[in-house]
Specification:
447 residues; homodimer; 11 helices; elongated; BirA Bifunctional Protein, domain 2
Chain lengths: 447, 447
């Protein structure tokens, strides 16, 4: 590599020759002096060049070069990637980091077309059309650094606790959750394959395989025709599953500790910059998170004056916001586990409490939005088959899944969590589209 | 959670009450004493119970319980998951770890059907049908721990060097590499989506977005009808891409350092166990890895007496084995970079050396098998379009990709590496099917 210096290393560096690479953010082409703001993945720096506007006849090579450089800078387009070799100089008067670089030579790697199709304030859909330009914004760059830190903290948490990472297949012969919203494809002529809606069945398989504790962060697919700020047809799912639990409480305890550790890592590494660019103070959650049984949550929401229109006994999005507002006001907490869901509104594989008849499961809400469903799973195959039958499911297509439990299985449970939802809420963004590298929705398959 | 103790913690624990959970590996039901070997994700332990075969009339509760326990143990099936509360006792005579547990109570979580459909020596296809049972083998459990360590070491290497982790979409409107071997699906009626064959275009997009250095570990899909030991229709691809390189050499240097660090982590954590269960000594590769231009590699292979039947100038699998054997004999090295491929046998986006006309790319061979293609990419859009045209590609469908380079882009390059191939070779396995959690091939879509 060239001896490239990153912009965030310039302040600590002594005056002298230096080489930086990045893209042109702005050019101020004044008569006597030219300024270029060059940005790289770590920051922005001011480049300066005393303009040589006129070339006298018989000018020497140096004068010719100076004139050529001035012309090159005058013609620089926004977004052009280039490398500058020059002289670094500390100067308190320079607002941008207190340094500037006097340009010696300038090498253009790839010049940008003159008309940039979007600006920072373009509409979301337009920005998504040109996502690679949109991602050059500082806040978007930060966003994916936050994502990186968040995920690495979670994986490290698990690996320190001897979890195994699995890569479960995304091509399946049957539906993993339900037959609705399933992408199907022709598989070598006579077979039909489906895209995994979640790693649910396969992470349970790892429990029957004696893996003990596992995690996976991977894409999941839902042919979901909805256009809300929280849904995508392809999303990154954060999944964990653990054996030998007593109830979903063991899962919840693992998850709250995980989130505490991960948020702490984000705050430590990016807290100041998040505050600067997103206006959000990252709150590291206290554990334990509050827990509220669903029936009580509904009572509280009703007492706050909101009547949930759903008749199935679940919360709706406004109900989720209301109960989270209550928790924030009462406990000063941004998270809440809602527990004790009726089997009718839960998947067939959720274990039921023999005393209450309710499922041993939870939803986790963060700032009023559901980010997770967790549960103890039913590992007794006779009960499991009975519950599937009760839901009217196609038992034949579930046989491969039931098999997982016919040769022994431990009590187990886990959760699935949407990465984009966590990021959206953590950074106070309005849609998962803003926090997804390349969003996929019913009318969005490109770029 | 119950106060479950993992089997590998028993040796260090004092004699006394203890609770362990796992699955039944064997039962020796002798007349006077019963032995159960219980395995969990960390090891195996011997459970012992003095048999109470007869129950006298008027026997007390304790005698009844003892008789019931004896019966339960006699009826235990292989694979049954259970928890035992008992008394831990250190005893040098016990071969298995020098400890045993006298059973107090025994709780069956889920009893296994009596006939286990596979044994450790069953054929590969049969074992894949019952993969969840196959995975209970110690070597398979270790295999996925090795995978976990390998990946975590790689991610940590990158994150310590400020790489951004991306999740590129697996649903695309166009092919990412070629139109061959592409899975397509109906996307909301009137659209066609394709499954990503690699994250190639989208990791390059991150370079135009100014991300600098990125990585991704994610599934990739190829509708590849081949049945070799090295191919799958779905596989885990390890990808990295970096900006401001001078040539593919910068990519190769990053990759060899990455592999050295990752192999060291595997050796440190699992070296002894790999030697015990796979009979393989993990060799941490020295850097730099040897580099051999393709033309020279072909000469060497020919001198060894092997005539490559391919006429396109590339190596074939036997040629790869031959050149690797040469490198092993000459340099004692298991890795070799083959460089300087002709553009005809490389993707259109590989940058070409203006002097030689050859691509600035490499293949990395490990123990005679290709595990990676790496290259500097062509970032100058006019040259890129020309190269695509020369290959006879459908330019219209590549417009979205060309756009990435029209608004400025840095010189960049990267590599893609197949996780399963690395694991297969590292552990001396004969097929990627053995090292994939759930293999997917033309006739394999289940379980």
């Amino acid at each position: 590599m060239t001896e490239r210096v990153l912009v965030n290393q310039l302040q600590a560096r002594a005056d002298g020759p230096v080489s930086v690479s990045g893209w042109v953010e702005t050019v101020r082409d004044q008569k006597k002096v030219q300024f270029v703001i060059l940005r790289d993945e770590t920051g922005a720096v001011q480049l300066v060049n005393p303009a040589t506007r006129e070339l006298e006849e018989g000018a020497d090579a140096a004068a010719q070069a100076a004139h050529a450089l001035t012309t090159t800078i005058s013609e620089l387009t926004h977004g052009t990637f280039l490398t500058v070799h020059g002289e670094l100089k500390h100067d308190e008067r320079v607002k941008l980091g207190g340094v500037e670089i006097k340009i010696g030579t300038l090498d253009i790697a790839a010049a940008a077309l003159p008309e940039t199709p979007i600006a920072a304030d373009s509409g979301l859909d337009k920005r998504m059309d040109w996502r690679f330009l949109d991602l050059r914004q500082r806040r978007n760059n930060l966003l994916f650094r936050v994502q990186t830190t968040l995920e690495h903290a979670m994986r490290t948490f698990w690996i320190e606790r001897d979890y195994i990472e699995v890569h479960s297949p995304k091509l399946m012969a049957s539906a993993s959750e339900s037959n609705a919203e399933l992408f199907s494809l022709e598989y070598f002529g006579d077979q039909t394959a489906y895209l995994a809606q979640s790693p649910q069945f396969y992470k349970q398989m790892a429990q029957a395989a004696g893996f003990g504790k596992i995690f996976e962060i991977a894409p999941a697919f839902r042919a979901d025709p909805s256009f809300t700020s929280r849904h995508a047809t392809e999303f990154t799912s954060i999944d964990a599953e653990i054996s030998w639990i007593d109830s979903h409480e063991d899962v919840a305890r693992m998850q709250e500790e995980l989130l505490q550790v991960a948020f702490q890592a984000v705050k430590d590494k990016h807290g100041d910059e998040i505050e600067e660019l997103f206006g959000i103070e990252v709150q590291v959650p206290q554990i334990p998170f509050p827990r509220i049984p669903l029936a009580e949550a509904r009572r509280i929401v009703a007492e706050r004056g909101y009547e949930i229109p759903r008749t199935d006994g679940d919360l709706d999005p406004e109900g989720e916001r209301q109960i989270s507002a209550h928790v924030e006001e009462t406990y000063g907490h941004q998270f809440v586990f809602i527990t004790d869901y009726h089997p009718e509104i839960r998947a067939f594989y959720h274990m039921r409490d023999p005393e209450t008849g309710l499922t041993k499961s939870y939803d986790l809400l963060f700032k009023g939005v559901e980010i997770t469903t967790g549960a103890q799973r039913e590992h007794r195959v006779d009960v499991l088959v009975e519950q599937a039958k009760e839901k009217g499911l196609d038992l034949e297509h579930l046989e491969f899944y039931f098999d997982f439990f016919r040769y022994g299985a431990p009590p187990h449970g886990g959760f699935g969590m949407g990465l984009a939802r966590v990021l959206m809420l953590l950074l106070g963004e309005s849609s998962i589209r803003e926090v997804t590298y390349l969003f996929r929705g019913p009318t969005r398959l490109a770029p």
